[in-house]
Amino acid sequence: MKIKMGRGKVELKRIENPTNRKVTFSKRRDGLFKKAIELSILCDAEVALLVFSSSGKIYQFSSHDMDRTITRYRNEKGLHKMNSHGARTIEVWKNEMDEMKKTMDALETKQK
């Protein structure tokens, strides 16, 4: 898959050279965090961003309290609904699948 980025088309595939991969990760992570900060400030949006590197290191940004934002997300998605064993209910799984299908359909339409 090729995606047009700022200066030209970039083929999206794993970067094989470990040094280049780490440099690209660092630069793109920084750019992603910059955009998240801009979005939260310019649009007064509640933004939370979690990134786990391939080595397992976590990077995070939250415009508000991270726990509050995650709790809000879980409530919005119905993830707080658990059965007596602490597992998600079938209703929650169905809702999540419906949302994913909508997202996939939108992405497929956009790609055409």
- Strand order, largest beta sheet: 1-2
Work out the strand percent: 5-15%
Overall CATH class of the largest domain: Alpha Beta
> How many strands?
4
Low-confidence stretches: none
Helix and strand run: EEHEEHH
- Taken together, the total number of domains comes to 2
Structural class, from helix and strand content?
A: alpha+beta
Q: Gap between N and C termini, in Å?
A: 13 Å
CATH superfamily of the largest domain: Transcription factor, MADS-box
CATH topology of the largest domain: SRF-like
SS field, number of helical segments: 3
Describe the largest sheet: 2 strands, antiparallel
Protein name: MADS-box domain-containing protein
Pfam family, one: SRF-TF
Domain MADS-box: 5-65
GO molecular function, one term: RNA polymerase II transcription regulatory region sequence-specific DNA binding
Walkthrough of the structure:
- The radius of gyration is 18 Å and the shape is globular.
- A two-stranded antiparallel ribbon has the order 1-2. The chain has a two-stranded antiparallel sheet with strand order 3-4.
- A hairpin with a 4-residue loop joins β1 and β2.
- The two termini are 13 Å apart.
- The chain has 112 residues and is of the alpha+beta class.
- It has helices at 18-42, 66-77, 90-111; strands at 2-4, 9-11, 48-52, 58-62.
- The longest helix is centred in the first third of the chain and has 25 residues, at 18-42.
- The protein folds into 2 domains: 14-81, SRF-like, CATH 3.40.1810; 83-111.
Can you tag this structure with a few keywords?
112 residues; alpha+beta; SRF-like; two-stranded antiparallel sheet; 3 helices; MADS-box/MEF2_TF; transcription; nucleus
